[in-house]
Write a structure and sequence with these properties.
Layout: E1 11-17, H1 24-34, E2 41-47, H2 54-65, E3 72-77, H3 84-94, E4 99-102, H4 114-122, E5 128-132, E6 139-141, H5 145-160, E7 173-176, H6 193-199, E8 205-209, E9 211-213, H7 224-242
Parallel strand pairs: 1-2, 1-4, 2-3, 5-8, 6-9
Antiparallel strand pairs: 4-7, 5-7
Helix pairs in contact: 5-7
C-alpha cells in the first residue's frame, strides 16, 4: 500500500477492482476531472491481486505522479482474498475522508454523477446519497434479459427488508462515515448498501437518478456463488431485523 499523504481528504472514492486493467486508469482520469475542486479528495483502489495487472497499472500511475496527483490515488492490494463486499469494506476502513463514494471500476458508474451525489451530503441534506436506476430519470442500458431478471429479483428481495429506497441494490452511492460507526458488516456477496440501510438508524437518504450503462470491457463478476452469497446476506439481515427484542 502506498504511503498516505499529509493532506487530510474530505472525500474518499473507494473502487474495488479485479481484472479491470482496461478501464481503471480511464476511470481515475475521469474522476480527476469530475471531483469538486473545492474539496480535498482521494481515490482508494482495492485490488484483489488481479492477474491482468490492474494493481500494477495503478501502482505505475502512482509512481509517475506521486504526491503531485490530485486527487491523491492510493492502492491497497489484497493477497489471497476475494469478494466485492469485503473489498469495499476494506476500502472504507482504509479511507481517510469523512464522506465516502463507492463505485465500480468498469465505467458503468459515470464519474460525472459523483458531484451530484456529494452535493447533498456536503450541504447536510442527507446522510446517504444513492445513484438510483429506479427513480424518474434513471435507467439501465445494455443489460441482457437474464441480468435484468437477476437484478429485479435481488431488488425485490431487498425491498422485503423494508430498506425504504427504490434502488437498494445500487453499487454506486455516497455516505457520511459517521452513520456506520459501530456497524459490523457481514460483507457477504457483492452489495454493501443494503447493510448500511438496514443497520443504521434514522438515516436521511436521497436517490439521485442515473443511467447504468453495461460495461464495455472486461467480464461481469456476477456468478451463481455471488447470488447465493447475496441470499445468505439478505437472510441474515432479515433475521436480525425481525428477532430484535421489543
Amino acid at each position: 500500500m502506498t504511503e498516505p499523504a499529509t493532506d487530510q481528504p474530505l472525500v474518499s472514492v473507494v473502487i474495488p477492482t479485479y481484472d479491470e486493467s482496461a478501464t481503471i486508469l480511464d476511470l481515475i482520469g475521469q474522476l480527476s476531472e469530475s471531483l469538486p475542486r473545492t474539496v480535498t479528495s482521494e481515490i482508494v483502489v482495492v485490488d484483489d491481486d488481479s492477474p491482468d495487472g490492474t494493481g500494477q497499472a495503478v501502482a505505475g500511475y502512482i509512481e509517475r505522479l506521486g504526491k503531485h496527483a490530485r486527487p491523491l490515488v492510493r492502492l491497497v492490494v489484497r493477497k489471497g482474498e476475494r469478494g466485492l463486499g469485503s473489498a469495499i469494506v476494506r476500502g472504507i476502513n482504509e479511507s481517510r475522508g469523512r464522506y465516502v463514494v463507492v463505485m465500480d471500476a468498469d465505467l458503468s458508474h459515470p464519474p460525472s454523477v459523483v458531484p451530484r451525489l456529494l452535493e447533498p451530503l456536503l450541504e447536510s441534506q442527507c446522510d446517504v446519497a444513492v445513484a438510483s436506476r429506479h427513480v424518474e430519470g434513471g435507467g439501465v442500458v445494455g443489460w441482457p434479459l437474464t441480468r435484468r431478471l437477476a437484478s429485479w429479483g435481488a431488488t425485490e428481495l431487498a425491498r422485503v427488508l423494508g430498506l425504504g429506497v427504490r434502488d437498494p441494490m445500487s453499487g454506486f452511492f455516497a455516505f457520511d462515515k459517521r452513520v456506520i460507526q459501530g456497524i459490523q458488516f457481514y460483507a457477504i456477496g457483492y452489495k454493501i448498501l443494503p447493510e448500511i440501510l438496514a443497520k443504521s438508524k434514522g438515516l436521511r437518504v436521497m436517490e439521485i437518478p442515473f443511467t447504468f450503462v453495461n460495461r464495455k470491457a472486461g467480464a461481469s463478476k456476477l456468478s451463481i456463488k455471488i447470488m447465493f452469497d447475496y441470499l445468505r446476506m439478505a437472510w441474515k439481515l432479515f433475521w436480525a431485523r425481525h428477532t430484535k427484542p421489543q
